[in-house]
Amino acid sequence: MKATGPNGGIDTSDLEDLSLGTEVETDPDLLIGTFRRRSVIASSVLSSASQRNLGQAISDSLPVDSPLADTFSVRRSPKAPTLYDGDTGIEMKAGKGASDFTEHKRNAGKYTVVAFLNSGSGGGVGKLILKDMQALLGQEFVFDLRKCGRGNMPSDNLLPYAKDPLVRVLACGGDGTMGWILSSLDEVWKQILGDKQPLEESPFKGHLPLAMMPLGTGNDLSRSFGWGPTFSNSMRKQGMIDKVVQATPQPLDRWRAVVVPFKSLSTDARKWVPAMLGEKMRNRTESIRALQTVFTAEEEESESDRGVRNEGGAGGAKVEDDSDAVSTRSASCSVVSGVDDLAPTAQSFDGVFCNYFSIGLDARVAFSFHKEREEHPERFTSPLKNKMKYIQKGISVGGLLSFTTASLPKKLNGKVRVMVEDVDGELREIPMPAHCRGVALLNIQSYGGGNRFANGGSYNDGLIEVIFFTHPIGMGICAGMGPIFPFLRFKVRSRTSRVCIRIDEPYHCQVDGEPWMQSAGVFQISYFGRSPVLRNGGGCCK
What we know:
Blueprint: E1 18-19, H1 48-61, H2 67-72, E2 112-117, H3 125-137, E3 142-144, H4 154-158, E4 167-173, H5 175-193, E5 210-214, H6 220-224, H7 238-246, E6 248-261, H8 267-270, E7 278-283, H9 284-295, H10 303-310, H11 336-339, E8 345-353, E9 356-360, H12 361-375, H13 383-396, E10 416-421, E11 427-429, E12 438-442, E13 464-469, H14 472-481, E14 489-490, E15 494-496, E16 498-503, E17 507-511, E18 514-518, E19 521-535
Parallel strand pairs: 2-3, 2-4, 4-5
Antiparallel strand pairs: 1-14, 6-8, 6-19, 7-8, 9-12, 9-17, 10-11, 10-16, 12-13, 13-15, 16-19, 17-18
Domain DAGKc: 108-261
Transmembrane segments: 466-488
Pfam family, one: DAGK_acc
């Protein structure tokens, strides 16, 4: 549908990213099950021809012992989901290191359940849950995240339990808390295994699986694993512990996000960057060498390459020949103006997420919500109030009820490029729809508080789904009508194991619901590894 409203009204093609059929539309060449090779973020702005010619030179330009070599490297995605023993959650076979297993006092049948929560959360509910969990599990097994400090971080408290196959972890909080505990577990395994051996290849695979008590606003990870959308008082009782014991361990894909700004962020901008994206300062010489190698090469894209891209790639998915429909770029990818201004030490941000990553429209709404909550916490005292405030932000900031393009968030077309790894291990650019205002990468099928925006996909297939948003009304239709009409979903533009994105001006971004404003730079999202998470199949909680 292609009709333009009068005097700057809505172009109904803004809703063309919604798929009205049961089939997910993707380019077959952009589907990939495993990594084929190690590669670097350098490829993210080069044409296929440039990648082939410069790939080896780029890899050689990064010394093996350089911090950048680790920053820009990617881990291989497993060929198939790892399945755990339904009872213990570990592979029940002898192997190297099996003699290192330990045993602890049991407080939940044959298991030990260790709980983490913030006593200050939920407007006073946190204190009640803390007392309840201490009564159910024992005070020594319950840790208050409000009292974290040197020597008393979650990783410090989890480390003694790491080699016990019958310990389960209960995290009480929102998606941010779940990510924090999973990252703390990463620190534990790094101390035990070092950097050489992934957890899924170690004797401790499946140890310390995570269960969830939802105390946040969106609770998307909790929804995905059957722990419910919101907290209820029944979760304060023994039934919750029984569910943790009965739950089945399943692997959860996790994704590494590396953000490299062209210029260092200001102090004010840096304070909004999510804590999960730890800041790293790189040597200026190393940063300039890497970025100049990446971005100053001349593109060697042939006319035939352009034709293939405008036709939607080898998969043959036709893309309308519209000046706004496909991101265009001059022959040179040079950003020397950004590289030469790097400070003596240059920033990068590096972290791991579980749920989703996005740039543009929805991140703008999330940032406005998050900023007001930080500045006026008294306005956010319950999940219901939080949801109402989020809807208000969607209308005032996201243009949910806007019928003029002037009040909508700015487009990504021409300012943002999205590259995905194809079946040959090379990065290809995805054409954007006309009037694109947002891009999202989905690992789980619950987004922004339970919305399902795409069909298919799994949290343990080693792939991440790429979708585009063009208008907030389309998001509203999908969110509001999707539960009734499950065929009403956004088109999946790619399922892939690595995505590289370049933005040429500031845009709002978010990772697992934590938003910030990011200046021009480059993102790489790649497979990180798998963590064991407990799936509740019996409902919560009686």
